[in-house]
From TrEMBL:
InterPro entries: MCP, MCP_dom_sf, MCP_transmembrane, SLC25A33/36-like. It is a multi-pass membrane protein. GO terms for cellular component: mitochondrial inner membrane. This is Mitochondrial carrier protein. Belongs to the mitochondrial carrier (TC 2.A.29) family. One of its GO terms (biological process) is pyrimidine nucleotide import into mitochondrion.
Length: 364
């Protein structure tokens, strides 16, 4: 009987030992450090909005659209003043260009209503949003690439010029068709030597304009004025070199203590961006007139379809220097607030995104 008890006890001990071993094994397995998941758990929204190039793209499109809507009436006037058709003959007798603009706005509102002041807004917005988005994204991207691969400082004027040149090539090449439609719509209803109010529109809306350009002029027709647009590279380069340098100096002057992050007020943004645009536009303005003339159709014909150089010569011979600078007053009154509003909006949007979504520092 004792032997049996001992045998039973040994079996019991063996079973307990085995059980204990299993429990210890389980404990070791459970205490293994888990894989850390929070480091990779970034939501799609955060990933999308924290990309610097994406933010530049969106901010550029939104800010450009806001500025375009606000200044659209002046854009209509600018295009019509640049045209070879003497649309505002009554207003043209005014010596003061501000009075010319005010009278022209009154004439447009009286003869065409509110719609007339915003002619071409739809193709303008359709062109402005992607063009400004491409504009800022291209400038920022080129600036980063030149800094990285050319060994140049991001504040170098050469980087600013190279980045501006990239904008000046990419944007017109992509968006010229849309802006050509905008110009045609803004100049529609008017023909030289016809009495005001007796004109009928050439185009029954935007789609009719697009289809007729394609039918009568082919794909090539959508790219009229492109070579003159490329001359805008000089305006863009001058503007960005001035803007970057003046902004940097202004930021330094606004820093009250060492180590403090300098900040701009809205008024400073408006002054810096608007002032730089005024200088750049005044220097390079004639290409704007040539571009409009190359795009316009008068009595079913384009007088300036023999190339950019020929257009420059024709305007200079027939109208002199005054012709090359026609509409500059309206252009400057429009482009300065347009640029100020656009860059103020751009800075606000990018800083907002940086603050709330941790977006990397944007460059522009």
């Amino acid at each position: 009987m004792k032997k049996d008890d001992t045998s039973s006890s040994e079996v019991l001990i063996d079973i307990e030992d085995t059980s204990t071993t299993i429990v210890e094994s389980d404990i070791k397995f459970d205490t293994t450090p888990p894989i850390s998941l929070p480091d990779t758990s970034v939501t799609p929204k955060q990933s999308f909005l924290t990309n610097k190039n994406t933010v530049n793209f969106l901010a550029g499109g939104i800010s450009g659209s806001i500025a375009s809507v606000v200044t659209q009436p002046l854009d209509v006037l600018k295009t019509r003043f640049q045209s070879s058709a003497k649309i505002y003959n009554d207003a043209a007798t005014k010596q003061n260009f501000l009075l010319k603009i005010i009278d022209s706005l009154k004439i447009t509102a009286k003869t065409e209503g509110l719609h007339g002041l915003f002619r071409g807004l739809i193709p303008n917005i359709a062109g402005i949003f992607p063009s400004r988005a491409i504009y800022f994204a291209t400038y920022s991207g080129t600036k980063d690439l030149m800094s990285k691969y050319c060994g140049l400082s991001s504040d170098s004027p050469l980087v600013h010029i190279g980045s501006a040149a990239a904008c000046g090539v990419v944007v017109p090449a992509v968006m010229n068709p849309m802006f050509l439609v905008k110009t045609r719509i803004q100049l529609d209803l008017y023909k030289p030597n016809s009495s005001r109010g007796s004109n009928t529109p050439n185009y029954n809306g935007y789609m009719d304009c697009i289809s007729r350009i394609y039918r009568d002029e082919g794909v090539k027709g959508f790219y009229k004025g492109l070579t003159a647009s490329f001359l805008g590279i000089f305006e863009t380069a001058i503007y960005f070199v001035l803007y970057e340098q003046v902004k940097r100096m202004a930021l330094k002057s606004t820093s009250s203590s060492e180590g403090e992050t300098p900040k701009f007020t809205p008024l400073t943004y408006i002054t810096v961006s608007g002032g730089c645009k005024l200088v750049a536009s005044a220097i390079t303005y004639p290409h704007e007139v040539v571009r409009t003339r190359m795009r316009e159709i008068v009595d079913g014909k384009c007088r300036y379809d023999k190339g950019m150089i020929n257009a420059f010569k024709t305007i200079a011979i027939e109208e002199g220097t005054k012709g090359l600078y026609s509409g500059m007053g309206a252009h400057l009154i429009r482009v300065v607030p347009n640029t100020a509003i656009m860059f103020l909006s751009f800075e606000f949007i990018t800083h907002f995104m940086e603050k709330h979504y941790g977006t990397g520092k944007t460059t522009h």
